[in-house]
Write a structure and sequence with these properties.
about 525 residues; mainly alpha; 24 helices; about 70% helix; globular; membrane
Length: about 525
């Protein structure tokens, strides 16, 4: 994530090395980054657990991710304004406290609605940790040491996709799902004490006004629209008021926001930046890609858990090759971004993603793990070579204050894309699974008919269920085949979207562009570097 710069007139250090004072500040920021980044990935393996715990559909429990990312998108622009007004140290500690309190509340949730609400609170805190943390680090070290700062923050960014699913799986297996949230309590408490002792005091200087009206239209509008979409599997038709009413109201709010955004001097999102062709092409490429990749990425652990019957820890370990692949290519892509035009590198990375993704469109209940893990590794290689170069391309052609507004814009689009992807892919999967044949005479405790796929998925996690229901073993096999086919169909949709990404990617710059980012950072002491979350 990135956020607008906060000017800080401090002398420029003469050494490029990060001294003890800077490393002490960096330690606080890395702790916060570990919590916020891990919490995005740690929940991915818990979604099937939430389904059984709260007796909810996949589309419903996916809102634990959708709500979280929408909250992140809400506070990205707010954090820069609030840092100017209240001070970075105070605001960072408030963000840490919000995130920690939200985590503890998540562990106390008795219903899926409560869990989603608490995840939103957690996201409001987590969304401020990275941009405010980067502002604090840049102030402490100076913009000429941004490369070294990024290397420090790169550790949790690279390890998050690997460690999150494994940690989440292990905690659920050895304890319960509550501990994927409770683990943040001791880390948050340590980080708060550390922040109080280590972070320097600053003098807040209120700057430009904040577009609260824009925020009140965009975030609720997106939430209402996606809620309507998510209600479709249970309602069964767009004609149901629970589907079309929130979709219509949400769409109206989003359209009103777009029309309104051209009026304020400092809008929530500066849509005027889309006049810049390079930024527009990069933003469209990233948005389509994020919807497909992040939406389908939530389903990979669920396939291992629900169709293959793996434990949550095993599912987390099976996801590790993807993170390892990204860890290998992300530093390489970062180095190449300044030397080779992104229009020449990103398409090759997308080819890797498409090649790995295709395997998942063919999944069945017995697909080779070697093939699946190899495909995840190849997808990870492509992922590492895609996101950072696209972000860099989006911001390279911007100058001065445009950089802050542009980075806010692309980061919010990234979070919105993740929210849309999670909602849409979970709806498609739920809709597909709902098409399974009901088992005559078999109902669940609430009286709903049990389907072949539903019983087969439940039996994979709890084999004793097959003893409770006198059913033909071939029924379980049929149900698993149907469930695997449902996942494959959903992956086909995501695969098609990744292929569509090649269209805007073909227009990415294929020639060397002069970057204005370094010039701006050298000219303005407090400029915050571009960070992706």
């Amino acid at each position: 994530m990135t956020q607008q710069a906060v000017a800080a007139p401090q002398p420029v250090p003469t050494s490029d090395k990060l001294d003890a004072a800077v490393l002490k500040v960096a330690g606080v920021v890395v702790l916060g980054a570990i919590m916020s980044i891990l919490d995005v990935t740690v929940v991915s393996v818990a979604l099937p657990t939430f389904q059984s715990e709260f007796d909810a559909s996949y589309a419903r429990v996916a809102w634990t991710m959708t709500g979280y990312t929408l909250a992140l998108a809400t506070v990205i622009p707010l954090s820069g304004w609030a840092a100017d007004r209240f001070g970075t140290k105070r605001l960072y500690m408030v963000a840490l406290a919000l995130f920690t309190i939200g985590s503890v509340l998540c562990a106390t949730a008795d219903t899926i609605g409560e869990l989603i609400g608490y995840r939103v609170l957690q996201g409001l805190g987590g969304g401020m940790l990275m941009p405010i943390g980067m502002t604090i680090m840049t102030r402490a070290a100076g913009p000429h040491r941004i490369g070294r700062l990024m290397a420090v923050l790169g550790i949790p960014m690279l390890l998050g996709p690997i460690g999150g699913p494994i940690l989440g799986g292990w905690l659920i297996d050895v304890a319960s799902w509550h501990w994927i949230f409770l683990i943040n309590l001791p880390i948050g408490a340590i980080a708060l004490i550390y922040a109080q002792l280590a972070l320097p005091k600053d003098n807040p200087q209120p700057s430009e006004s904040f577009d609260f009206l824009g925020m009140l239209m965009l975030s609720p509008g997106l939430a209402l629209f996606l809620y309507g979409v998510s209600s479709l599997p249970e309602a069964g038709t767009f004609a149901d008021a629970e589907v079309w009413a929130p979709m219509l109201l949400g769409a109206a709010l989003v359209v009103a926001f777009v029309l309104y955004s051209f009026k304020p001097q400092h809008p929530l999102l500066d849509l005027r930046l889309f006049r810049n062709r390079s930024l527009t092409i990069a933003a469209v490429t990233m948005f389509v890609f994020i919807i497909a990749f992040m939406g389908a990425g939530l389903l990979f652990p669920s396939y291992f858990l629900q169709v293959r019957g793996e434990s949550t820890l095993a599912a987390g370990l099976l996801m590790a090759p993807q993170g390892i692949g990204a860890m290998i290519t992300m530093p390489i892509a970062g180095m190449l971004a300044d030397k080779v035009p992104v229009g020449r590198t990103v398409p090759f990375a997308l080819v890797l993603i498409v090649a790995g993704f295709f395997t998942f469109t063919q999944v069945d209940p017995n697909t080779s793990y070697v093939l699946l893990c190899g495909s995840l590794f190849v997808m990870g290689l492509g992922m590492g070579g895609t996101m950072m170069p696209i972000m860099t391309s989006a911001l390279k052609s911007l100058t001065g204050p445009e950089v802050a507004r542009g980075s806010t814009l692309v980061n919010i689009l990234q979070q919105i894309g993740g929210s849309v992807g999670a909602a849409v892919m979970s709806v498609i999967l739920t809709n597909e699974l709902n098409g399974s044949q009901p088992i005559p005479g078999v109902t669940d405790p609430s009286g709903k008919a049990v389907t072949e796929a539903g019983l087969a998925i439940a039996a994979q996690q709890r084999p004793e269920l097959t003893q409770q229901f006198p059913v033909d073993p071939s029924l379980i096999e049929r149900g698993l085949d149907f469930a695997a086919s449902s996942f494959a169909t959903t992956f086909w949709v995501a695969f098609a979207l990744v292929v569509v990404t090649f269209i805007p990617a073909a227009f990415l710059p294929r020639w060397r562009e002069r970057s204005h980012l370094l010039d701006d950072q050298q000219g303005e002491q407090g400029k915050t570097p571009v960070v992706v979350h």
